[in-house]
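Folded chain entry —
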Amino acid sequence: MKDLIGKAILDYQLTKKPNVIITETDISEDEEMEISYWFRSYNEMPELEQIALKACKGKILDVGCGAGSHTLYLESKNFDVKAIDISPNAIEACKLRGIKKAEVSNILDLKNEKFDTILLLMNGTGIFGRLKNITQYLEHLSTLLTEEGQILIDSSDLIYMFDEDEDGGKWIPMENKDYYGELVFSVSYNGEKENDFDWLYLDYNTLQNASLGNNLTCELLYEGENFDYLARITKKGS
């Protein structure tokens, strides 16, 4: 990976100059995203994220932290937070913003630590990549939880993006896919294009069933108007 998103985040941290990244998927056209969005304050965050942050407890792991806006808010509330991201540039920006614990790490490589809250926001299921990887991630995440710990994760059901056929069903092209929420993402920044990567949008029922299949409990905390939702996953019996 060329780390273009991280580069855009670090550039904004250093210069504060407005700029955009351009995202595209295999089912959608180019779309601009303001880099400043990663630097939003709590009051600028969508309701889903505010609810998630209010639900945090104990020792927290912020996975895929980006520019660290969620971590900064939680630190302001005196939480012990560890922020991780696979992007070295994004972690450098986090450190420049004053985040106490920020490190370059893939969640699957994190071991021998326990957290009361694991936070995965801005389509937290995206890091699973493909439907077939859900069990691998849920199993690993559960090893990082304390007995009373929780995973707070969001995503969206993309079924609305597909056309209906004459019978009212959805016409979904599934070539090289196991599930309609499996997307291939591309990102461009300042004329440079990132390597394509897999990104998973997961409907709530599928997440709930996958959780049950891995001896976890999943509950819906918030459901938005745009098919987005926030879920809490815990160990059974906790």
Observations:
- The longest strand covers residues 145-156.
